Amino acid sequence: MGMMERIEVGTEATARAREFLTFKLGGEEYGIDILKVQEIRGYEAVTRIANAPAFIKGVVNLRGVIVPIVDLRVKFDLGEARYDTFTVVIILNVAGRVVGAVVDSVSDVLALNGQQIKPAPEFNSLLQADYITGLATVPAVDGERLLILVDIERLMSSPEMGLLERAAA
Amino acid sequence: MGEISNPGLQEDGFDLSQFYTVFFEEARENLANMESMLLDIDIAHPSNEELNAIFRVAHSIKGGAATFSFTEVATLTHELETLLDRVRKHELPLKRSMVDLLLEAGDVVKAQLACRQGGTDHSPATEALIQRIRTMASGQDQRGAPAGARVLDIQIGPLQSGAAADGLVELFRDIPSLGSIETLDQGQLSADGMRRFKVTTQSPDSELVELFSFHVSREQVQIAPLVAAASTPTEGDGYGFFVDPRTLPQATKDTPADAGSVEGDASRRPDGRPRSDKPAAGALESTTLRVSVEKVDQLINLVGELVITQAMLTEQAKDLDPVQCSSLLSGITELERNSRHLQETVMSIRMIPMSFVFNRFPRMIRDLAAKLGKQIELRMVGEATELDKGLIEKIVDPLTHLVRNSADHGVETPATRLAAGKLAHGTITLSASHQGGSILIEVRDDGQGLRRERILQKARERGLHVREDMTDAEVWALIWEPGFSTAEAVSDVSGRGVGMDVVRKNIAALNGSVELDSAEGYGTRVTVRLPLTLAIMDGMSIGVAGETYILPLSSVVESFQVTTGTVQSVGATGRVVKVRDEFMPVISLDEVFRVPRQDGGSAAEIMTIVEAEGRRVAVLIDELLGQHQVVVKNLETNYRRVPDISGATILGDGRVALIVDTASLVNRARH
Fold first, then answer.
1. How many CA atoms lie within 13 Å of B273's alpha carbon, on the beta-carbon side?
2. Which stretch of DSSP H or E encloses residue B107?
3. What backbone phi and psi angles, to 5 degrees, belong to B513?
4. What CATH number is given to the structural domain containing B365?
5. Could you give the number of structural domains in chain B?
6. Which among B538, B554, B534 has a CA at the least distance from the CA of B351?
């Protein structure tokens, strides 16, 4: 089923170039659909939520709205989750909700067309292949770098993130 | 007119004046609506919808006026209602003269309300007007036999040449019974091509138009009353509802509905009393403003931001030298005070006390009790509990239904009650409170309770799956099934509208829940629990190992210092404390919320007694930080429910603090 949907997304992508916000998690670089991004903020102190999974850092006040903050580095066990002045929170608008995702840094906004995006092979990782819409290579100073494109909406609304009520039920 | 007389509300001893503003505002809107509907209405083919809408205006003003004992308003609107009722039932055809009369009456009602609002007693006299409305409602004027001739101001036009209208004069010459006609303009067209005539006739407008249509097209005929003629039933009223064209020539083209006629009315009151300084009969003053809730919410959020920014500034300014920056510091203090004040004011916009809903029940219960031959006392508790306006409005109908149910099916007749060894009068208790971050509204009666057997029997008839050994709670739950009318199930009074399933659906639509508890012979209690979307709560902020939580102040009983030896263990994990001869379970908040402690030792030094759902627990905390009003924010908007947490709020420094769900804490101690 995952395969089917990935192909679908791939075909759609062929039609036109889409823009992706790329960011770093540990040593890896990820890209998400820029249309899902509401804003980018520095990391600020969160209010811890008792008995929540470790990757849910807590909640913050975003102009009067209570927003949960998820640390993707903790969730996918990517590098050391450090919180310093470079740590960035991407505020996402997914599934009708506002959610913040902590990342190491935001790198770029890239336009990628269908040819540049290759389907990801089946593999074993904490980040299930279902949520990966494709892989892309982008030129870098030292040759090429790999970009992992993630369907952030599906990921954030998935039961394993436990952000939505039905997931908890 | 007994039905609209003052129902003696004063006896009940509650103050209705707080609703005056709302009533005036609504009445003003209603009248304006009626006026525009009347002006737009197609007289020949009025739609039922329009007629009903106009009827409803009169009806609702009458209802409100009667409630507040504005007798003169109620009397007049009652007459209007009677007339409109006949029209909407098509017993009377709508006529131009009727529309005129309605507009005129509307203006008088406006003037009456303005007098009430202005606190003056110079209300316009209405006897003659009422008489005319009655005549119209009886349909007499239709027969061409009104009590006397009418003097009309007829305008014809716009016309190409003035001569076209001369046919009208001939018409009156040919048909003597029609009355008399005079030209008011020496046969000359006015600047906008109009001809004006003064007609004295007994014929209805429709007949005139019919006859005039031989000479000019119907659309060109405009008929308006000129002055109250000496022989009409309005004789001698002299109230000047119609403006005399000789004194106010420009007003003659206006319909009587125009403001000018009200002004005229006020200035020409027959009693000759001077006009009050207050704008008694002028435009009804608008003292309130209707604003969309969205705008208010936006405002609330913005002010929240402002307060946070201000708190940040205050924090920054702490390190400044008070001597060098004295003016800056005093400015910041000022800013703090002002923004707090602003926040409080803005918050209060959306909040309405529960009494807004509750206060309509005494009247209802009074009427119901009289109708049902029962004695019912209504007790109301927690009317000051504030609830978001949106919720208040939507809870009215379900609550009304529940209260009616209690009065109808719950409370028994005095004879039955006495036979059962109860007081002759039953009691219905309405209560509202904040509990566990929700609003809890209870409708309780000491009536006969639900009859288990009847419900089971009914459920079987309905083909529902029931067993004899179902618990009471399960049986009561059947009440909420669609189509399971309580009327049929519990008493023999039936055919009275919606069932309990609708109540539940309505409450569920507000994200609330409803529970029913009953004991046969002792009464029924229905508990409605509503979430707080934007309720303000008095909270006590407490510190637990560096984290801040909010306890709803309403559930905090007392706090005291923990001394060694007060807490005793029971079994391996249980702990109890003895407070004034009462043992209660002890809960350590840092354990519940797994707050990491840096130093490892337990620093919990304060014990707060928390009460919820009738039970008490002692909660161990580190420190009491303060009390303040907090805006309850829903965690579920962007996250999900968190155990033992009812919501979140934003503290002065912009950080989020979680609000403890005391009800679940209490239940936690139990299990």
1. 12
2. helix B96-118
3. -135, 160
4. 3.30.565.10
5. 5
6. B534
Q: What percent of chain A has pLDDT over 70?
A: 87
Which of helix, strand or coil describes residue A108? strand
State whether B161 and B233 are in the same domain.
Answer: yes
Yes or no, beta carbons of A97 and B645 under 8 Å apart: no
Regarding whether B577 and B660 lie in a shared domain, the answer is yes
User: Considering the entire predicted model, what is its pTM?
Assistant: 0.48
ipTM surpasses cut 0.90: no
Of B523 and A167, more confident: B523
Check if the beta carbon of residue A50 is closer than 8 Å to that of residue B593: yes
User: What range defines the domain where residue B53 resides?
Assistant: 2-141
Q: Is B303 on the interface with A (CB under 8 A)?
A: no
pLDDT in tens, A112-154: 887 888 888 777 776 777 788 888 888 777 778 888 898 888 8
For residue A138, being part of any structural domain is answered with yes
Of B479, B504, B531, the residue at which a domain comes to its end is: B531
Chain A contact for B27 (CB, 8 A cutoff): no
- Residue B600: phi and psi, rounded to 5, are 85, -30
Tens digit of each residue's pLDDT (9 = 90 or more) over B20-68: 777 888 888 888 888 888 877 877 778 888 888 888 888 888 888 888 8
B-chain residues within 8 Å CB-CB of A67? Answer: 638
List, in sequence order, the alpha helices (H) in A59-157: 72-75, 152-156
d(CA B404, CA B456): 23
CB-CB under 8 Å, A164 with B656: no
In a domain, residue B277? The reply is no
Could you give the count of Cα atoms lying within 13 Å of A13 in the half-sphere of its Cβ? 25
